[in-house]
Design brief:
Layout (H helix, E strand, L loop, with lengths): L1 H10 L4 H17 L3 H28 L17 H20 L2 H24 L5 H24 L9 H18 L10
Helix pairs in contact: 1-5, 2-3, 2-4, 2-7, 3-4, 3-6, 4-5, 4-6, 5-6
Length: 192
Amino acid sequence: MAEAGTAYFISAFGNPVVALPAAAVLIFLLFHTRHMRVAVNYATAIVGLFISAAILKVISRCLGDSFVGTPWHLSIGAPSGHASLSTIVYGGAAAILMRAAGRLGAAGAFLLFLILLIGIAVTRVTLGTHTPMDVITGIILGMIFVVPVSIAAAREAWDVRPLNAVIVVAGMMAVAFLANVSGFRITSDIVF
């Protein structure tokens, strides 16, 4: 049973109640350092992902079990909202930090966020919440929204007001951890 508790804890980092406050930390730091375009792009990508995921979940519910038993075995909850949200929140943060921070800090942030994303993806499947294809679909959906964030970060002049990767990661993870241990969750079969 301890394994299930750990899996739920890791999986919860993709829950909107946990991931969105973490994203808010980065958005605040981007605004604070006057990187408004990147902040707005990141926030818009998150909103776009929510809308897209909700539409895709409604479509998958309408299709029902059309794909059951095929290589494209999607459940009626596809795509995984936790996987897609964590991809844009943590993957988007990594994409920004790859441009905004020094190499060592960016590499560390990328590695941490990658491990977190893999942990969320694996736990969604091991907990029986989603099929592997649901999770892969969620990650692909999230990556679609990471691309414009990465492009916006690449176009930004970071040398004037760089971001400190340690502060960003520590802030995001501290807020996510506190939100996670609070135990509060928003769970819906339709949205996430």
